[in-house]
């Protein structure tokens, strides 16, 4: 039997998305090093412009460290409602070409264009058209990776950033992976990368040189994925919809919260934001989960389950308050509070296709 024709997968990744939206909307920020997020001593960089990245500033970096690296760094308060709206515009562009779309976040998604609506034979041309439309209709740039599977398409989208495209055909997939540092392979986290490096595995070629038994001895159940990834193999489908397992909102505070009233006030605000998301997604859950991160970064979660899904904002807020009050006093103070609902009755996908965690 003939083997099936290779799939045509595109991974689209917006360039410095939040920062680019801010520079688009405020011309005075263009060409300047900016960071979206909290600029105080407890703040965190959500994302930053390429001008800031030139100084070593990166996403998830503490704001204080970012300022040390780039004294002229400008912090901009996030506008998530704008980022979600623009993401919707981008998603509409994707839908002109295919219905098989798997969002990973507001600013990136996989598309299966093996069969596409305009009937374009070349996936490269589809990616070029998508990037052109995004620029024309949103004023933003996107990078794209085009390949025969998700693993390589995602790696390829990062090759020629910003505003670039990288195409890896099936005949070149194994060589593309071979030259890749293992720390860049999606699915190999920082801890695993360090373990691999300790074993002399620095590149995809080094990984391919180890047999499956060796990988199983050192990496257990993940060994099969690493073995196949090193050979450029990945048969995961692009999923049109992802099952939502929970809906949650969390917030990191400028100062650790110890006072009871301050903690309750913040949790009530988080509960109100969460309820808005629950109603919009029609995602009703039976289990309310509280998350607390302490000043020493230790995290606890506490939960309460109900016989039926939580159906009112007050029931949600009250459950959260009871979980929180049971933990008081908090001698170390709370650096972060979060509230979520699990055991969902309806698994409707929200507009951003992913759990939204608000961390300012």
From TrEMBL:
<comment type="subunit">
    <text>Monomer.</text>
</comment>
<dbReference type="GO" id="GO:0042276">
    <property type="term" value="P:error-prone translesion synthesis"/>
</dbReference>
<dbReference type="InterPro" id="IPR050116">
    <property type="entry name" value="DNA_polymerase-Y"/>
</dbReference>
<dbReference type="Pfam" id="PF11798">
    <property type="entry name" value="IMS_HHH"/>
</dbReference>
<keyword id="KW-0963">Cytoplasm</keyword>
<protein>
    <recommendedName>
        <fullName>DNA polymerase IV</fullName>
        <ecNumber>2.7.7.7</ecNumber>
    </recommendedName>
</protein>
<feature type="domain" description="UmuC">
    <location>
        <begin position="9"/>
        <end position="189"/>
    </location>
</feature>
<dbReference type="GO" id="GO:0003887">
    <property type="term" value="F:DNA-directed DNA polymerase activity"/>
</dbReference>
<feature type="site" description="Substrate discrimination">
    <location>
        <position position="18"/>
    </location>
</feature>
<dbReference type="InterPro" id="IPR043502">
    <property type="entry name" value="DNA/RNA_pol_sf"/>
</dbReference>
<dbReference type="InterPro" id="IPR022880">
    <property type="entry name" value="DNApol_IV"/>
</dbReference>
<keyword id="KW-0479">Metal-binding</keyword>
<comment type="similarity">
    <text>Belongs to the DNA polymerase type-Y family.</text>
</comment>
<dbReference type="GO" id="GO:0000287">
    <property type="term" value="F:magnesium ion binding"/>
</dbReference>
<keyword id="KW-0808">Transferase</keyword>
<keyword id="KW-0460">Magnesium</keyword>
<dbReference type="GO" id="GO:0003684">
    <property type="term" value="F:damaged DNA binding"/>
</dbReference>
<dbReference type="GO" id="GO:0005829">
    <property type="term" value="C:cytosol"/>
</dbReference>
<keyword id="KW-0548">Nucleotidyltransferase</keyword>
<dbReference type="InterPro" id="IPR001126">
    <property type="entry name" value="UmuC"/>
</dbReference>
<keyword id="KW-0234">DNA repair</keyword>
<keyword id="KW-0239">DNA-directed DNA polymerase</keyword>
<dbReference type="InterPro" id="IPR036775">
    <property type="entry name" value="DNA_pol_Y-fam_lit_finger_sf"/>
</dbReference>
<keyword id="KW-0227">DNA damage</keyword>
<dbReference type="GO" id="GO:0009432">
    <property type="term" value="P:SOS response"/>
</dbReference>
<dbReference type="GO" id="GO:0006281">
    <property type="term" value="P:DNA repair"/>
</dbReference>
<dbReference type="InterPro" id="IPR024728">
    <property type="entry name" value="PolY_HhH_motif"/>
</dbReference>
<feature type="binding site">
    <location>
        <position position="13"/>
    </location>
    <ligand>
        <name>Mg(2+)</name>
    </ligand>
</feature>
<dbReference type="Pfam" id="PF00817">
    <property type="entry name" value="IMS"/>
</dbReference>
<dbReference type="Pfam" id="PF11799">
    <property type="entry name" value="IMS_C"/>
</dbReference>
<keyword id="KW-0238">DNA-binding</keyword>
<feature type="binding site">
    <location>
        <position position="107"/>
    </location>
    <ligand>
        <name>Mg(2+)</name>
    </ligand>
</feature>
<keyword id="KW-0515">Mutator protein</keyword>
<dbReference type="GO" id="GO:0006261">
    <property type="term" value="P:DNA-templated DNA replication"/>
</dbReference>
<dbReference type="InterPro" id="IPR017961">
    <property type="entry name" value="DNA_pol_Y-fam_little_finger"/>
</dbReference>
<comment type="function">
    <text>Poorly processive, error-prone DNA polymerase involved in untargeted mutagenesis. Copies undamaged DNA at stalled replication forks, which arise in vivo from mismatched or misaligned primer ends. These misaligned primers can be extended by PolIV. Exhibits no 3'-5' exonuclease (proofreading) activity. May be involved in translesional synthesis, in conjunction with the beta clamp from PolIII.</text>
</comment>
<feature type="active site">
    <location>
        <position position="108"/>
    </location>
</feature>
<keyword id="KW-0235">DNA replication</keyword>
<dbReference type="InterPro" id="IPR043128">
    <property type="entry name" value="Rev_trsase/Diguanyl_cyclase"/>
</dbReference>
């Amino acid at each position: 039997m003939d083997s099936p024709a290779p799939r045509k997968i595109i991974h689209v990744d917006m360039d410095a998305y939040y920062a680019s939206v801010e520079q688009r909307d405020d011309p005075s920020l263009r060409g300047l090093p900016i960071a979206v997020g909290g600029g105080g001593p407890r703040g965190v960089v959500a994302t930053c412009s390429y001008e800031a990245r030139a100084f070593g500033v990166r996403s998830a970096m503490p704001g204080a460290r970012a300022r040390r690296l780039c004294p002229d760094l400008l912090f901009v308060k996030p506008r998530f409602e704008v980022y979600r709206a623009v993401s919707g515009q981008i998603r509409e562009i994707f839908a002109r070409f295919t219905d098989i779309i798997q969002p990973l976040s507001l600013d990136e998604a996989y598309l299966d264009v093996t069969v596409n609506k305009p009937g374009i034979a070349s996936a490269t041309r589809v990616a070029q058209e998508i990037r052109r439309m995004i620029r024309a209709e949103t004023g933003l740039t996107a990078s794209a990776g085009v390949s025969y599977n998700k693993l390589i398409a995602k790696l390829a989208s990062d090759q020629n950033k910003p505003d670039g495209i990288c195409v890896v055909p099936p005949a070149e997939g194994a060589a593309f992976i071979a030259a890749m540092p293992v720390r860049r392979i999606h699915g190999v986290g920082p801890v695993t990368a360090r373990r691999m490096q300790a074993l002399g595995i620095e590149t995809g070629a080094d990984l391919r040189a180890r047999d499956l038994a060796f990988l199983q001895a050192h990496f257990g159940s993940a060994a099969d994925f690493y073995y196949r990834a090193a050979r450029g193999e990945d048969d995961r489908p692009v999923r049109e919809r992802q099952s939502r397992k929970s809906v949650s909102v969390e917030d990191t505070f400028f100062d650790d919260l110890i006072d009871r009233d301050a903690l309750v006030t913040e949790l009530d605000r988080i509960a109100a934001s969460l309820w808005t998301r629950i109603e919009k997604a029609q995602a009703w859950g039976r289990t309310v989960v509280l998350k607390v991160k302490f000043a020493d970064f230790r995290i606890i979660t506490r939960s309460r389950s109900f016989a039926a899904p939580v159906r009112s904002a007050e029931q949600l807020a009250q459950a959260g308050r009871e979980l929180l009050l049971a933990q008081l006093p908090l001698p170390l103070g709370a650096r972060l509070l979060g509230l979520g609902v699990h055991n969902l009755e309806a698994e409707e996908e929200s507009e951003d296709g992913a759990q939204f965690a608000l961390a300012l």
